[in-house]
């Protein structure tokens, strides 16, 4: 029928502007619009909750990657059970206290990104330029903080009762409680300094920069292109 034909043609035209508007007009929240107190408090709290949940599997993955063949563990579940039996729950969280300092890098990433966008806005109003520069700069700052912390925490992950796994071995017991845990951290830091100097804390730094800076620099312009 002619009436049905007209409706079939008109209906997409009537809906499409609204669909495009819902998809494209995404509000971009700039740095000055943020509630800084809520942002930092809730951001750290949420990240910490996630970190507590996944850290044991990060530790297991690291040990599986480092071990020779299947000399200690035959897989993820086998490693989980053996670590739990040998060291208890604390064994699944070796290096966790040190690793939590990487939360700082996440906050520094966002802060650097937003402040750099604001700075670049004085020279260019292009969202692509602002996002490209800010994304790369934020990743540079974040990785400069993260890599040394990761190096120390990964060496702590390698500590276990019995056979040595990593390059360094802490002295004393491995109960991983309170002062003892930070005593292990100091021990690892001293051994890294003695063996490799300050450069020892930045093993893999260039590789990290080459991985994360391009990724961050490209991701944000695409986000703003979609949202704009």
UniProtKB/TrEMBL annotation:
Keyword set includes Transcription: no
Membrane disposition: Multi-pass membrane protein
Gene Ontology BP, a term: branched-chain amino acid catabolic process
Region (Disordered): 1-20
Segment forming the signal sequence: none
Biased composition (Basic and acidic residues): 11-20
Family classification: Belongs to the mitochondrial carrier (TC 2.A.29) family.
Annotated PANTHER family: SOLUTE CARRIER FAMILY 25 MEMBER 44
Protein name per the record: Solute carrier family 25, member 44
Species assigned in the record: Mus musculus (Mouse)
